[in-house]
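QUALITY CONTROL LOG
STEP: pairwise intake check
CHECKER ROLE: data steward
CRITERIA: each record must contain a sequence immediately followed by its structure tokens, with no blank fields

ENTRY 1 OF 2
RESULT FIELD BELOW
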Amino acid sequence: MKHLPQILCLFFLMLGNAYAQQEKGIIGTNNWLSSWTEFRPDLVEYGEATEILTGTISTDTKLLKKHTYMLLGDVFVTNNAVLTIEPGTVIIGDFKTKGSLTITKGATIIADGLETDPIVFTSNRSVKKAGDWGGLIILGDAPINTYGGGSPSGYNFAVNPSVNINYGGDNIESNSGILRYVRIEYAGKRKRDGGNFYALLLAGIGTETTIDNVMVSYSAGNSVDVFGGQVYLEKMVSYKSNRLDYNFSSGAQCDIYNSLAIRSSYISNSEGSRCMNIKSNEYEEDIDFSKKETSVTAINLTLINVSDDLDYEIKLGLVKEAIYVGKNTSLNMKESVISGFSPAVLLENKIKINNESLSKIKFQKMYFNNCNGNIFTEYNNNNEDLENWYGNSSFFNVYSKGLDSETFIDIRDDKRPDFRLRINKIIASNED
């Protein structure tokens, strides 16, 4: 037993190393992506629809795994009804009619899949492409910061006027249901006004709503939009979105934890494509400044632009910033990884660079890797003040130029990639 102290020291050292790799970026002793996600949905055959969903669902309804459902046109759950979806159920959005599903204010969706049996929303085309169908829209009655409430009017729904598609209210604890172990594929159909559906729109969603383990892949519009409300998101995945991965506005109060955004330079739209977009509202004249501004807390995120030749793609102008922060908002981001962007963060030019403003935009214990610049103000190439502020050792931010293969465990596995940081393979410093 004389070697017991040495054995114990070795054990605790190994234990410390195991947890050290989990300090930044997505965390987990195992790869939590390995069971319920799908990174090659184009190779999956879901079969033909056996049941049709259309018009309004005004009574409690249950969708069963044994059927495959088609969303024909704009489908609305109304009248405080509960739509329950069994684990393993497949719901197909119709291409020709721009199929979509809206859970109206007061109604509830219970899409509680299993790690081994996720619920899938996907396209009905034989050759699937981004924007094949509309998306999933959930409207609640939690607060938003715009005058007179909100409405997704840009969708131009062909709907009976009796269907209320407004969102927002005074109920912070609003409960719109559960989204757990859910995949949303090939959504973001182009709208009549020239924009796109959002693959997943959470508007006025309250704290009692459960949203975790949701993967959005190949969306032609934004992957996840949070308009107002107060919501907690965990283990979210946005994969190769054409536009924004996570968009926060209208006074959203959102905590997002242990989540992932994977971008590709050749898929991203040339305008407004980034991992996180944080704004108070799209139109300043609509903001009620007596209400809360948009506020996001982001912990253990991994935001990565996967590239075989990053320098070349930057020269072509294909690579943009990972995060955009607008004025009258706040962001508290820590223990996260931003890798392969140009630059990592862009602040709106209307934000004054002073202690008051920067105290609302926090980056702590971050890992900035292989970025063409770190934090800049829009239209200003001189970021000396920002570098001095965020480069202060008290923030414990780290800067590196490591290759993806040296930085992440295995991002090239098409079937089961692992985007966790690779322990003891990172050469990093506190200098850019």
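ENTRY 2 OF 2
RESULT FIELD BELOW
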Amino acid sequence: MEYSMEVKNLRKNYGDFVAVKDLNLKIRKGEVFGFLGPNGAGKTTSIRMMVGLLKPTSGEILINGAKIDDVERGKIGICPQELVLWENLTCRESLKLMGDMYEVPKDALKQRINNLLKDLFLEEKANTTVSNLSGGMKRRLNLAMAVIHEPEVVVLDEPSEGLDPQSRRVLWNYIKSLRDDEGKTVILTTHLMDEADSLSDRIAIIDHGELLRLDTPENLKKEIGEGDVVEMVLSDPEKNRKLVDELEKLDEIIAVLEVDGQVNIRAMNAVAKLPRIMESVEGIGVRIADLSVRQNTLEDVFIELTGTGLRE
């Protein structure tokens, strides 16, 4: 197995606070590697160390077997969450300037710019100044600038943040093409569970600076177990905790959690369990304001592991 990146016992301390605690990862060549965690979990700190922007307290990072300090700067392309653009340049000028900074040969750069403008649906805006682009177009240009020099490892930090569904689909297709057509390794941080599920070959879930799980989306969903999830909003959310305590006493309930002001109940064949669940609700003297039943998702895995929603 060939690895693009190996992270060994990575640690970052800020005084007495441990932001990242002995993180170990092996990221395979040519995979989309999802990196998930609640806000403040240590994701951004980890990523910044992994791409050489932040010095770790201890541990090491290897890129294709070489220490990160010895790696050429062009091996990694970074698309940050915050847009980094020149507002007064056109799309084509922005890509040319970025390519020149990485010393991409002139003929190769021209072809690469044309391909990127086409692949990211920016051809018609090639000569439009950045300040006149929509938010979705700016984000797609930001990605194009991150890969203009054809890096081996592409790091995408919240690439779909604030995008409309159409722009998101363009972005997803391009990320898949980076892996499938160009053999790139893509490291993806995202708040969107369907994005992580759809794009990632494997997913690492991190919380409090520690790695909780690393597996394929399919295996992670199997780990939490089959079954359905009942999402319930009570007329009096103050009673959520009391309902959780009551439902935990029932043998037929696999798990019950309070998440974002609602009660999530996981059970096999949940619809058949609803009458018994309703009895518990009535027993604490409260009404149901809203109720839905759905299948187990990656979001449920995340909540089970971290006890929180991704945006909390």
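INTAKE CHECK: passed for both entries
DESCRIPTIVE NOTE, ENTRY 2: The chain has two domains: 3-221, 226-295.
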